[in-house]
Amino acid sequence: MNIGCDIVENKRLENKNDAFIDLILTKNEKLEYQKKGLLYLCGRFAAKEAIMKAMPQTKNYHFLDFEILNTEDGIPYCVNQKNIRISISHEKKFTIAVVIIF
């Protein structure tokens, strides 16, 4: 089992351009980002950073290797990695994500 954690200051991602967003979000994630805005982007960025910190270092991972959506109940999950659990929290200026890989 591996654990990863990442925290983002939300204003750091406020004015990111489309090229940056294309590096971070998959097509489905971009659709949600258009509806939900900055905090969604911050959450996905932090979660993907946390995943990459927790993954074995035998491979170079990229943000688009992981797609994180939400269940109908709002629980984030990694579409293409069933062995990952994700928690994302927002508090005023910051977003944090914790990941457990089992």
Are there runs of 5+ residues with pLDDT below 50, and where?
none
Q: Could you tell me the strand content as a percent range?
A: 25-35%
Radius of gyration: 13 Å
The biggest beta sheet, please? 3 strands, antiparallel
The CATH architecture comes to Alpha-Beta Complex
- Supply the CATH superfamily name: 4'-phosphopantetheinyl transferase domain
Mean pLDDT over the residues: 96
What is the N-to-C order of secondary-structure elements (H for helix, E for strand)? EHHHEEEE
**In which order are the strands of the major sheet placed?**
1-5-4
Please report the distance between the alpha carbons of the first and last residues: 4 Å
Task: Tell me roughly what share of residues is in helical segments.
Answer: 25-40%
The level 1 CATH classification is: Alpha Beta
Structural class: alpha+beta
Number of DSSP helices?
3
The total number of structural domains is 1
Shape: globular
Q: How many E strands?
A: 5
**CATH topology call:** Ribosomal Protein L22, Chain A
Polypeptide structure, described:
The protein is α+β, with helices and mostly antiparallel strands and 102 residues long. The chain has one domain: Ribosomal Protein L22, Chain A (Alpha-Beta Complex). Helix content is 33%, strand content 29%. Strands 1-5-4 form a three-stranded antiparallel sheet, covered by helices on one side. Strands 2-3 form a two-stranded antiparallel ribbon. A hairpin with a 5-residue loop joins β2 (68-70) and β3. The longest helix has 17 residues, at 38-54. The termini are close together. The relative contact order is 0.27.
